[in-house]
Amino acid sequence: MTTEHPPQTSSSPHGPSTEDLRRRVAAAFPALRADLEALVRIPSVSAPAFDQDHVSASAVAVADLLRAAGMPDVQVLTATRPDGVVSRPAVVARRPAPEGAPTVLLYAHHDVQPPGKDEDWQSPPFEPTERDGRLYGRGAADDKAGVVAHLGALRVLADELAVGVTVFVEGEEEIGSPVFVDFLTAHRDLLAADVIVVADSTNWKVGVPALTTSLRGLVDCEVEVAVLDHAVHSGMYGGPVLDAPTLLARLIATLHDDAGEVAVAGLLRADEPAVDMPEEAFRADASVLEGVRLAGSGTLTGRMWTKPALSVIGIDATPVAQASNTIAPRARAKLSLRIPPGQEPAAAAAALRSHLEGHAPFGAHVTVTDGELGKAFRAPVDSAAMRTARQAFADAWGVEPVDIGVGGSIPFIADLLEVFPEAAILVTGVEDPDSRAHGPDESVHLAELQNVVLAETLLLARLGAPGALG
């Protein structure tokens, strides 16, 4: 349900009006779109198997755009972990706050996911292409549109900015931000802020904005099932011993009950959300095939936002093309567990390990290797910064924003809170349910992106008003 919203006529008592800023954003948008297209053409995939020179080129391009937008202090920076791992290049641009004014940190990332197979795309992944009001290309939504949203607000407000602004554009979000904490620690003085805007989430739907108030956390692991010391002939020995892929399948089947609920003891459930979505909308957004029943119970938003979800995201077994008449001695799977706000990742990882080890089928040897841990996030919904953001989004779109959870994880938000515990964090986004981030035919809705730029412009203008943060 959405509510029509009469716009606030002025962004602040002494600043430009909402309609003036709307006109200025519209005038600036063609150039912003061109900048987005130029960024999309840079294949800045941060995964190790790809050429990292493109990530460096992307960082330089972002730095040049921020300098041209009037940011006086722009640097391309890295950090190094204690084990010697060096981060991908990030861009940090700073404009000091006027005396007594707050500083706002604007976050986005310039690295992207691998494109996958070219044949799965209707147009080349790194050649931006417009179709039906959407711009297609890898990174067009996630998250080079976030970079452009920040850039647009800076251009429109220019010397009228009444707050300090730091722009932080990370270069390794898509590989889990492995050096993020070290980067925050090394450059803490450059990044300190009163409000942090993370432009890396989604809106409710086209025409209805959202503020993300919760994110699930992440636990993953690999589980290996072993039954033999080596492969043996399936005709001579088959029967008394089951192959490892069969036993792995039986183990995986214990992770959910007959209704599809996660059946791992010790995992928490948070409260049901206040909003839900129609089943037909979910089925369309998730491309569920006709006849497939949905798993779990309760609201669909609760199943996606406030309950655990457990998926098999990879399996190692004998490939079909290399199959022979042998009993496979080992098989391995990678599991991805999303956990709701309130669940500690280490406790969830221990619960998952205990379940896997305690349900070994037919006495098979089960080995669990722990992987990534990411904390969940829950934001206060009535902070001064949140109220200001909610008004800005309502004025930009003309309808009230929806407070949403997101089933995915942004683990670095917990890191930001740990390093900057006094900062108010706002999670905004440029995506919508049709954006297909991480998949083929990723896209951004161009009219929605223009609204995002306006909303952020209004937010920055209003945060500069006296007493905006209480």
TrEMBL record:
One of its GO terms (molecular function) is peptidase activity. Residues 1-22 are annotated as: Disordered. It comes from the Bacteria. One of its GO terms (biological process) is proteolysis. Residues 1-15 have a biased composition (Polar residues). SUPFAM superfamilies: Zn-dependent exopeptidases. Pfam families: M20_dimer, Peptidase_M20. Residues 214-361 form the Peptidase M20 dimerisation domain. Keywords: Hydrolase, Metal-binding, Protease. Signal peptide: none annotated. Gene3D superfamilies: 3.30.70.360, Zn peptidases. This is Peptidase M20 dimerisation domain-containing protein. It comes from Actinotalea ferrariae CF5-4.
